[in-house]
């Protein structure tokens, strides 16, 4: 399998996913949940013990399935929903009373976002700092061109996750930020393994073997490990997606998209990009020699 020789195909596939995502982000943005926009906060004290599932069923019927529910002491329930007017809140209270049980409303108020503009900016700053540290680490351990290829592969994964959530307007909450940062850490680990194999093979390079064949061989030698690792993670994430409950779905879906994208970019983007950088360096050296000749 000639991965490096077909690298333009892999680049095209990535662009076919990333470009629509960027366009969607510019035109529609993300479907921000109540963690970002704020909403209504309701606190109920029930006469009898209730479960989160009972309350969730009523919220689903009112198209409020993405709301956050917290249960305390078996009969105290905190519900954080999208902004509702007084009539909508009264209807929800009556529906919960009739379907779950008698209750007393302890709190009914409008609250601000959990993740404000300042916190979102700090998350972006953390991502930028992490990128700089990754560049420094890979430059010291390998070389600068490896570092740039790795960061481009990471940005690929971030844009894929964010773009898909924008295209399908999947509501995002605070766990989405955690998922994106987790994907960055997961993806770079897989990329480092492949880069390490390339470096090992460069040290044992045969005179008759060209760079393209060496990089391709290095990727193929680590491909089984990469695929087996990602499949184990995917199996767990799929199980969580279907049986892990409503509150973990955003995190799990973002992780699932990011892990698959990370495996793809590590194999089909990072190493081919490094190879292209080395080819550009070689061409530049040839041009400089021709000028001095």
Tell me the β content: 5-15%
> Count of helical segments?
9
Please compute the radius of gyration using only Cα atoms. Answer: 25 Å
Structural class: alpha+beta
Percentage of helical residues?
55-70%
Q: Identify the strand order in the major beta sheet.
A: 3-4-2-5
For the sheet with most strands, the description reads: 4 strands, antiparallel
Mean pLDDT metric? 89
Q: How do the helices and strands follow one another from N- to C-terminus?
A: HEHEHEEHEHHEHHH
E-strand count: 6
**What global shape is seen?**
elongated
End-to-end distance:
40 Å
pLDDT < 50 runs, ≥5 residues: none
Organism: Heliobacterium chlorum
Main location: membrane
Keywords: Cell membrane, Membrane, Protein transport, Translocation, Transmembrane, Transmembrane helix, Transport
Subcellular location: Cell membrane
Can you put this structure into words, describing what you see?
This protein has 9 helices and 6 strands. By secondary structure, the chain is α+β, with helices and mostly antiparallel strands. It has a 4-stranded antiparallel β-sheet. Strand 3 and strand 4 (76-81) form a beta hairpin. It is elongated and about 90 Å long.
């Amino acid at each position: 399998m000639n991965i490096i020789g077909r690298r333009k195909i892999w680049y095209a596939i990535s662009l076919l996913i990333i470009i629509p995502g960027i366009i969607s982000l510019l035109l529609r943005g993300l479907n921000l949940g109540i963690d970002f926009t704020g909403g209504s906060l309701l606190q109920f004290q029930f006469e009898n013990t209730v479960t989160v599932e009972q309350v969730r069923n009523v919220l689903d019927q009112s198209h409020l399935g993405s709301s956050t529910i917290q249960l305390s002491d078996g009969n105290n329930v905190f519900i954080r929903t999208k902004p509702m007017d007084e009539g909508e809140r009264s209807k929800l209270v009556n529906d919960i009373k009739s379907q779950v049980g008698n209750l007393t409303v302890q709190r009914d108020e409008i609250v601000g976002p959990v993740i404000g503009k300042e916190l979102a900016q700090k998350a972006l700053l953390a991502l930028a700092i992490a990128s700089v540290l990754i560049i420094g680490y890979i430059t010291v351990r390998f070389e600068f061109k490896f570092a740039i290829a790795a960061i481009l592969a990471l940005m690929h994964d971030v844009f894929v996750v964010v773009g898909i959530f924008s295209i399908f307007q999947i509501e995002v909450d605070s766990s989405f930020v955690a998922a994106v940062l987790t994907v960055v850490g997961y993806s770079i680990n897989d990329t480092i393994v492949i880069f390490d194999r390339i470096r090992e093979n460069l040290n044992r390079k045969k005179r008759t073997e060209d760079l393209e064949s060496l990089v391709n061989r290095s990727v193929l030698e680590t491909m089984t490990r990469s695929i087996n690792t990602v499949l184990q993670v995917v199996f767990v994430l799929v199980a969580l997606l279907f049986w892990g409950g409503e509150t973990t779905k955003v995190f799990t879906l973002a992780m699932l998209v990011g892990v698959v994208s990370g495996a793809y970019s590590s194999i089909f983007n990072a190493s081919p990009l490094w190879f292209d950088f080395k080819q550009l360096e070689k061409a530049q050296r040839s041009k400089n020699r021709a000028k001095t000749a």
